[in-house]
Amino acid sequence: MNNEMNAPQPQSTSPFDRWQNAKEWLRQNLKGDIVIWIIVALLSLASMLIVYSATGTLAYQRGGGYPESFLFKHAFFTGIGLLVMWGVHRINYTYFSRLSRAALLISIPLLILVKVAGVTINGATRWLAIPGTGLTFQPADFARLALIANLAAMLAKRQRVQYDWQIFGKMILWVGIICFFIALTSTSTAVLLGFSCFLMLYIGRVPGKYLAVMVVSIGIAGATGLVVGQRLDTAQGRIERFLKRDEYQAKQGFIAIANGGTLGQGLGKSHQRNYLTQAYSDFIYAIIIEEYGIIGGIIIMILYAILLVRGVQNINETNRAFGGLLSAGLMLSIGLQAFTNMAVAVGIFPVTGQPLPLLSMGGTSVLFTCISLGIVLSVSRGDIEETNL
Q1: What is the distance between the alpha carbons of residues 300 and 308, in angstroms, rounded to a whole number?
Q2: How far apart are alpha carbons 33 and 309 in whole angstroms?
């Protein structure tokens, strides 16, 4: 009896104590810019609702399957992506400077392999099959990450050195080669990557005459890749239909936006998902507006704008030029892709085939977006001593 009375009693935890414990866990495990973490969480959660709604028709077209199957697949890749982002953000970002050149060299044969033995999906050959898994990935996403990291490293080494044509020639060479090979299978990706690199050079204080040469070089490399590649007819057709306002997908996107009005039709009540073949990817922003209205579309746009600003602000958060340039380059790439997707949906740009980062369904896009964001978060942690890793 006395032993029972003297036994320690379990202590009840109040909601306030649980909240404090949760905050402490988050503080210890989620380093870096908390605003970026919050926006990534919000976009990831929103993607579950939007992809579930947008894939209803796709499931029906593929034999009456359940839309939950696409939701579970998207949730799986999103979960893997977030886990990878968490792991990457704990790595000292300076390591990526050392790995960037090797990654760049690996990306070239992968891009060539896509041209030779790539998997064609929706009329575009941009994917490589992973043997024995049934999965595919886009080497262009890997090459984009490698080029931005390598360019940031080259620019960082020359912040206190006067530029000359020999130094700048190496930058032009790498940007031109990667943009050329990407343009063989994806014109819009090559254009966005080239523009991201141009902005990185501008931020890196490269003189104007070199920037002008960079623009011409990227233009020549991209145009050559387009002509000898597989997307020339597609690009010409999309531009012609855009000028004539005769693009089927764009028209259906306009109808979706008109249906959305100010407040939208409501979750799962989109009609145009039945007509948009890429409602879950390229035109997911149109579905967002149809279901959540202009208000929902503006909120999504603001979240991406804040994400872009926070990533570029990392230039002021680190004492190393490489970290600031790397963060700015990666976030510019994500931001340009996001705003291109939204611009296509509202009719500002021709159809490009660019997904909306973190929101569109697609394993490769989600994974490499999360890797990029993990690196940005690593930079936002500030300069980390290698001995603390």
Answers
A1: 13
A2: 12
d(Cα 41, Cα 87) in Å, to the nearest integer? 16
The 3-state secondary structure of 213-268 reads HHHHHHHHHHHHHHHHCCCHHHHHHHHHHHHHCCCHHHHHHHHHHHHHCCCCCCCC
Q: Do 111 and 184 meet the contact criterion of CB atoms below 8 Å apart? A: yes
- Which residues of the chain have a pLDDT value below 50? 1, 384-389
Cα 107 from Cα 140, distance rounded (Å): 8
Return the pLDDT at 245: 87
User: Counting beta carbons within 10 angstroms of the beta carbon of residue 347, is it exposed (0 to 12), middle (13 to 18) or buried (19 or more)?
Assistant: middle
**pLDDT at residue 2, rounded to an integer:** 52
| Token representation of residue 320 | 């190393």
3 state DSSP class of 55: coil
pLDDT per residue over 176-211, tens digit each? 999 999 998 888 999 999 999 999 999 888 888 889
